Amino acid sequence: MASVNTNYGAMVALQQLNNTNSQLESVQSRINTGLKVGSAKDNGAIFAIAQGMRSDVAGFGVVQESLDRVSSTVDVGIAAGEAISDLLIDMKEKALSAADSSLTTTQRSAFNEDFKALRDQITTIVSNAEFNGVNLINNSTAGIEALASADGGSSITVQDENLSLGGGVITLAATASLSSAGVASAAVSTIETSLNNLNQALARLGTASKSLSVHSDFITKLNDVTEKGIGNLVDADLAKESAKLQALQTKQQLGVQALSIANSSAGIALSFFR
Questions:
Q1: Which residues have C-beta within 8 Å of that of residue 265, sequence separation ≥ 6?
Q2: In this predicted model, what pLDDT tens digit does every residue of 207-231 receive, in sequence order?
Q3: How does DSSP assign 121-152, residue by residue?
Q4: Distance between alpha carbon 176 and the CA centroid of its chain, in Å?
Q5: Which of 158, 167, 169, 263 has the fewest Cβ atoms surrounding its Cβ within 10 A?
Q6: The domain defined by 44-233 carries CATH number 2.60.40.10
Q7: Which of 16, 27, 14, 11 is nearest to 247 (CA)?
Q8: CB 184 within 8 A of CB 91
Q9: ∠ CA(265), CA(263), CA(9), 5° rounding?
Q10: DSSP β-ladder status, 134-135 and 130-131
């Protein structure tokens, strides 16, 4: 039946064309953004999961920064401790030389001056072993913490090591000198004890540094795996979308042709009255 009031064929063709245009718009959006789920309207559940994982990735970045800061602080402390260890060895040598009873007063005084210069250098090193405003070896802090998880619920703590003269590690007094052979001999023993204590302190700092490094590597890997997981959820397959685009463009052209044919069908009614 030919009718000028109702053109059902055109209605159907228009519906199909609108559907094709909608699909084409969706494919073009995926190609432009590289995402198959770019907003909640694309897939609410997947979008919510991806956003949660993106939050974790952001948290991992903060954790990595925290680990890097604390690791650098510990490394500065280790470098300072190693320098102090070298100084103590030199001081032991000076003290042992000054303990020789055959030395004259002038000769012992020369060793004493060298000894005090090395002693004061330890104080200088300790006071300057600072990173990001934190000194881990001058007894100014109980310790320093680094974030260990993206939610801030766990941390890694590195304890302070007091390497100041006269402290718990280096028992040699800040005023120590080699005024006599007996005093020099006693200083040798004190320095040996300080060296043993310092080696243990350096071992603790080294272990803490290793722990921070291992966790930093883990966070890096965890971040990479999480980002890959996000990509698996929301990234578009561009090769597949390209094929869809070509198919939909062809379908769109055919739809336009079909609508044109349907719209011209009403003209058939005129032939009945010729």
A1: 2, 7, 9, 10
A2: 999 999 999 999 999 999 999 999 9
A3: HHHHHHHH-EETTEESSSSS-SEEEEE-STTS
A4: 45
A5: 263
A6: no
A7: 27
A8: no
A9: 80
A10: antiparallel
